[in-house]
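Handoff note, outgoing to incoming analyst
You'll be picking up this chain. Sequence as last confirmed:
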Amino acid sequence: MEAIQGIGPLTTPAASAASPTRQAATTFGDILGAMVENTSQQQQKADLAIQQLHNGGERNLHEAMIAMEKADISLRFAVQVRNKAIDAYQEIMRMQV
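Most recent structure output, in case you need it:
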């Protein structure tokens, strides 16, 4: 069985002493992209587990259910992040300058 993996800590690497103007290598877009990629991989693993279960493969029912739940939780998390990002954008657009 696989261990449940979460999204790693959201720390940014410190700028090197040689280049004080260097920007952090990880951007918000990179983090979102990684989250979407992780969600997609979880969905694909769940689909594969269901297909193997249906075809009589080596997968057990509980392993397929665990893969489906991981994919469901990952998708729900991505949707909540999207909703919060949209809310933040709308709040910024309502600000008067």
